[in-house]
Design goal:
Blueprint: H1 13-18, E1 20-24, H2 29-32, E2 35-36, E3 39-40, H3 48-51, H4 56-60, H5 73-83, E4 88-94, H6 121-131, E5 135-140, H7 160-168, H8 172-189, E6 196-199, H9 207-220, E7 225-226, E8 238-239, E9 254-258, H10 276-288, E10 292-297, H11 307-322, E11 343-348, E12 351-356, E13 362-366, E14 372-377, E15 386-388, E16 397-401, E17 412-418
Parallel strand pairs: 1-4, 1-10, 4-5, 5-6, 6-7, 8-9, 9-10
Antiparallel strand pairs: 2-3, 11-12, 12-17, 13-16, 14-17, 15-16
Helix pairs in contact: 5-6, 8-9, 10-11
This protein binds ligand FHN.
Length: about 425
């Protein structure tokens, strides 16, 4: 087990048990979908303003075109909950472009005042989350703001020295006091319970500035969880790098933010989709190591969710919802000493869940010394025969027989009930 100085702890049961959430990156960048004046960005699409150096005055004009006639918050939240099996949603209330996706009194550069649709998208989502009992979290870019003269700017392709110089000339504290904090206050007071604030790219924020954001949030909604990227290791949980998962179980609360293709915001040219199988394996690996998987969609400017994303999430969701007990509320377990291509384990008190990824006649779990009470297919409670006796080499092994009708199946979960609280894996010896 990897141990760090501080064990990140959200103190929120819902976060510890959730395991699977939906990230939504949506803003004006969706209108460009990765291309501006015939030039395609080769960076993540929500960075197009920055990557292609689009001047503020020009980029702002995109707001005149934002009219998401196909956006249906109710249908999206219902689908995320019932079909995809997600337990929380994190929505970009303001990304680095500086545009608020809700009605803000602090800046007219917002979806109600600056667009022809005059729709408060956050309000629509918050209402739907309330209706379907879905936890709502909000992404807020607290350091980078390419629209505000005092917000930090990083340069995807730029000169590091110039970037630092430009940022140091800004009055970041002024921006923090006059845009960030008032906007945080707005999203925390106008939209009901906000379960999480997802900060990002803290850049040169000082410890005091990160702490000011935290204090403000906790003074309004004390149970609101704060992501690792508030900066200075002050978050309630550890946020991994984008699309990176810890190789080993990690102690405490953590989350992997991840994409389905290579971008967060919608990019019409990005067809590098991961397949449902890979996503499912990642979800189980992350769950098994104790974390949450926050998986992204980037709606089109019209509000439509890309068909490919829906297809992948539907397939993954089928497994997740059919095998819920083996995912939600599971806890980090000891490391199984062998690498298996055909399975990953998750754990609960007195239960080992074997998530099977390849057709098999039997499950042989070598070096497992648990006393087994019962084994069954999780989806339909079908009881399975099992044997617990040492191998000729004297190693412990649990063998579970797979009945004929399941032998050709890929993707099912077997629950092994044990007398012990957790898995008992024996170390390898010669
Ligand atoms: O710069 C952002 C990026 O656009 C996206 O929002 C991701 C999500 O984790 N966070 C930053 C890069 O790490």
């Amino acid at each position: 087990m990897v141990k760090y100085d501080r064990v990140p702890d959200t103190k929120q049961k819902w976060f510890k048990e959730a395991k699977y959430g939906l990230f939504i990156h949506w803003g004006l960048y969706a209108l460009l979908a990765g291309e501006y004046k015939g030039v395609k960005t080769d960076h993540i699409s929500e960075w197009i303003m920055n990557s292609l150096g689009i001047p503020v005055g020009e980029y702002e004009k995109l707001a005149d075109e934002f009219n998401p006639v196909d956006f249906d918050a109710d249908a999206l939240v219902k689908m995320a909950k019932e079909k995809w099996g997600m337990k929380y949603i994190v929505f970009t209330s303001k990304h680095h472009e500086g545009f608020a996706m809700y009605k803000s009194e602090v800046s007219k550069y917002n979806v109600v005042d600056a667009t022809p649709c005059h729709r408060d998208i956050l309000k629509e989502l918050a209402d739907a989350c309330k209706k379907y009992d879905m936890r709502l979290g909000l992404y807020y870019s607290q350091a980078q703001d390419w629209h505000d003269p005092n917000g930090y700017v990083s340069h995807a392709n730029g000169d590091e020295a110039q970037r630092k110089d430009n940022n140091f000339k800004k009055d970041f504290q002024y921006y923090l006091d006059n845009k960030v904090k008032p906007q945080l206050k707005e999203i925390l007071t106008g939209y009901g319970e906000i379960s999480l604030i997802w900060f990002d790219t803290p850049m040169a924020m000082t410890k005091e500035q990160s702490q000011e954001c935290i204090d403000l949030i906790k003074s309004i909604q004390p149970n609101c969880v704060i992501s690792g990227r508030v900066g200075n290791q002050l978050g309630d949980y550890m946020t991994t790098g984008d699309n990176f998962l810890p190789r080993l179980p990690f102690e405490g609360d953590w989350e992997v933010p991840a994409t389905l293709n290579d971008t967060w915001g919608f990019n019409k040219d990005d067809e590098n989709w991961k397949n449902p199988e890979d996503i499912l394996k990642l979800l189980i690996k992350i769950t098994s190591r104790g974390g949450n998987y926050l998986l992204n969609i980037g709606p089109k400017a019209s509000g439509e969710i890309p068909e490919k994303s829906v297809g992948i999430l539907n397939e993954v969701g089928k497994y997740v919802t059919e095998n819920a007990d083996g995912i939600y509320g599971t806890v980090r377990g000891d490391i199984y000493p062998y690498e298996l291509s055909w399975a990953e384990f998750t754990y609960k008190k007195n239960k080992i869940f074997v998530h099977v990824f390849e057709p098999r006649k039997r499950l042989e779990i070598l070096n497992c010394a648990n006393h087994v009470k019962k084994a069954y297919i999780l989806k339909n409670d079908q009881e399975l025969d099992f044997v617990v006796e040492p191998t000729c080499e004297g190693d412990t092994i649990v063998t579970v027989e797979i009945p004929k009708e399941w032998r050709e199946e890929k993707y099912y979960c077997v629950c092994i009930e044990t007398e012990e609280d957790g898995p008992v894996f024996e170390p390898l010896r010669g």
